[in-house]
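Folded chain entry —
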Amino acid sequence: MYGSHSQFPQPIRVAPCSAPPVLRVRPFGPNDLNAVAAIVKDSLRENYPASLYLDIHRWWRDGFLVAEWHGTVVGFLAAVINAPQQARILMLAMYATHRRHGFGTALMNAFLNECGLRGVKSVELEVRKSNVEAIGFYTRYGFQTTNVLPRFYTDGEDGYKMMRHL
């Protein structure tokens, strides 16, 4: 039998952790403009004017999301409401070094949740025919190819139109 509680080890007090979460999905803000443009150039091989990203942000703020890894933007999803109860993903891109690590999944999950809150009934997107990895990703999310888009991309490559009903 123990004579007093002083014989028990004292609990260790741990200060709350103030480090940012490893992965964070949040709305795009104008300060993310340079990061998003760099990802587009790296990942999509496109060079759009900065005004495009600001327009997308203005059209549907909750449909433009960024993924942060240790405080650095490494990917994004940009979408618009293009018809009643229908959203269109304009771009989903990650730095090549950050693919297949769950960032796209986190962005898509957050986006589909936002669509549900908005009463969106279907989501459409376009993808390059050669982007087998992206097509597989979208297929796992229930997107189906609805038609071929001849010479859809600026370099002349064909694309697929894909759609998912929510």
Notes: The chain has one domain: 22-165. Residues 103-118 form the longest helix (16 residues). The two ends are 63 Å apart (CA to CA). DSSP finds four helices and seven strands in the chain.
